[in-house]
Amino acid sequence: MTKYPHLLAPLDLGFTQLQSRVLMGSMHTGLEEEKGGFEKLAAFYALRAKGGVGLIVTGGIAPNFRGRLAPNGCQLSFPWQVKKHRTITDAVHKEGGKIALQILHAGRYGYHPFNVSASKIKAPISPFKPKAMSERQIINTIKDFANSAKLAKKAGYDGVEIMGSEGYLINQFICARTNQRSDGWGGGYQNRIKFPLEIVKKTRAAVGDDFIIVFRLSMLDLVEKGSTYDEVVTLAKALEQAGVTILNTGIGWHEARVPTIATSVPRAAFAWVTEKIKQHVSIPMVAVNRINTPDVAENILRSGQADMVSMARPLLADPMFVEKAKNNQAALINTCIGCNQACLDHVFKQQRASCLVNPQACYETELTFEKDSSSKAIAVVGAGPAGLAFSCYAAERGHSVTIYDQGSQIGGQFNYAKQIPGKEEFYETLRYFANRIKQLNIKVELETKVDAPMLAGLNADEVVIATGISPRTPPIEGIEHDKVYNYLDVLRDHKEVGERVAIIGAGGIGFDVAEFLVEQKPSLSTNVGRWLDNWGIDSSMAEAGGLKEHNNHPALRKVYLCQRKASKVGKNLGKTTGWIHRETLKKNQVEMLAGVEYKKVDDQGLHISVNGEDSILEVDHVVVCAGQEPLRTLHDDLTALGVNSHLIGGADVAAELDAKRAIRQGAELAALI
């Protein structure tokens, strides 16, 4: 008997039925614009349908040229474009799934000079100022939405999702923030919501009654001059009357300065928003954001907060999420850690999306792990992300794998990352690997230090070196002083750290150590109420946009975060999450210094020079986070003995503890070996 009866219950929509309560949220993958990308998308979506998803929603497809996200963005406006979409819908239906096309008009978020909006107000996240739409353009755009939906139905889609949230065009009409029109499409709220309502009405008329229309409604804008609670309720009711089948929740505009999906956001942090609106409508409603385990999803559905749950990145991480929940194998789900590193960060850099913990995502036809008829004996040294990923994929192919690690537990650098406030999800990746190792009968020898002669004596068919990195020690006078630690002293050995600290190095590790030292315990990411208050989110929804005044909490320590480069501190952090880390440190009064020349460390503290001005940071401790060196001695020793070995992960390239690259490199080697 399943532990998740609500999650796995079918949803009857009258004219059709969904196989589970899981909606796969829209994600732009980049395949939409790649040559041959639709065949790859077909494999990507078909696997999720096979895994038990109730309704898949595609990445955003524009209804016309001006609505594209980028100049080469995908649109569905003409009959000749239908055929390639059939590739996707046929593949999904073959696996018993259902799929809806998301129709998205970017409005002022369009990254091109042809973008348009309700008013001529530039978005802070696009360099292009939009033109205000004429009434003729508005009417034609409404027709274009309906036309796209009609073509989608012809292409075999089971429905469409009309994107009315996240600050895109429809949202821009709804809110006074971006709609300063004085005609019948602006001014009072009833005028401002005419645009979405006319789109829904025309779409319903174009597709008939036996077609799913999902409307993604922005229920919590998280920007100034956003919608009020009463306004959201008014629109929700009107959308139901206009013919919407399902209401999907939208949280926050892309320009909002509040995190909504990063790993530091508590699980199900916004389910209460859906619950508040749900009492006013009778059509199914979908809860969204940071729902990444079957237990979290089941709790939302069982408590009546929503009728469905939307999961986007969790289905990148594990396409068989629903099927594993059905089989009571939640421990074997490869959980999304909300890092954004291979999904959103890639998309915003015009790269193909994938997943840090699942490099096969969006590469289903290219990165494959077929069984190897000649099973090999493989020795893997190092149980960090690279070694674990390689071992699991290699064992999946039928090889006999033994992992050696001198530590007392698997995980390598992940064991330090998981301690950072807001990065507790890293525990899930280690749980997944631990259970996968057992399932695949991989032998693990912990607290075992190996050398080249021992490995050579194993007569293994292949040896893989994934020994990781060691912290780099910069040549600074006094670096051997007792008050100087490296980051492993703090995160691994938990050495006592004083109240005043200087951190040398402001890369990812420097930021992690700073957050570790200043963030309150227990972590805000484990308490929704405290987290909402910390980010100034009004859970009563009394204020427009859902924002309220908030005060920073007292800092636990005085921390200086220093870097040699004169550029902005944290400039090279994740594209979609770097600002969150900078804002978190700012809230904790961390002083970020760029262009720092390190003079020496002595009893007084850290002597520095910035722009030619000397000063002393009078600190109790200095923590060095100045990069890493690859631990590749074992590889070199094996080479000297004439034994060939493969080098992966940090031992190959000691970048910023790059788990994304390490796991992908392990997977790619396993596919070839």
Structure description:
The structure is a single chain. The chain has 673 residues and is an alpha/beta fold. It folds into three domains: 5-335, Alpha-Beta Barrel (TIM Barrel); 377-470 and 629-672, 3-Layer(aba) Sandwich (Rossmann fold), CATH 3.40.50; 473-519 and 556-626, 3-Layer(bba) Sandwich (FAD/NAD(P)-binding domain). The protein contains 23 helices and 27 strands. The chain has an eight-stranded parallel β-barrel, surrounded by seven helices. It has a five-stranded parallel beta sheet with strand order 15-14-13-16-27, covered by helices on one side. A hairpin with a 2-residue loop joins strand 23 (605-610) and strand 24. Helix 2 packs parallel to helix 3, helix 4 packs parallel to helix 7 and helix 14 packs parallel to helix 23. The longest helix has 20 residues, at 135-154. The radius of gyration is 26 Å and the shape is globular. The two termini are 40 Å apart. The model has no long low-confidence stretch (mean pLDDT 96).
| Percentage of residues in DSSP E strands | 15-25%
Shape: globular
What's the quaternary structure here? single chain
Any idea what the radius of gyration is?
26 Å
Q: What is the structural class? A: alpha/beta
Helix segment tally:
23
Count every beta strand, where a strand is a DSSP E run of 2 or more residues: 27
Please state the average pLDDT score.
Answer: 96
Number of separate domains: 3
Portion of residues in helices?
25-40%
GO molecular function: 2,4-dienoyl-CoA reductase (NADPH) activity; FMN binding; iron-sulfur cluster binding; metal ion binding
Pfam family, one: Pyr_redox_2
Protein name: 2,4-dienoyl-CoA reductase
Domain NADH:flavin oxidoreductase/NADH oxidase N-terminal: 7-329
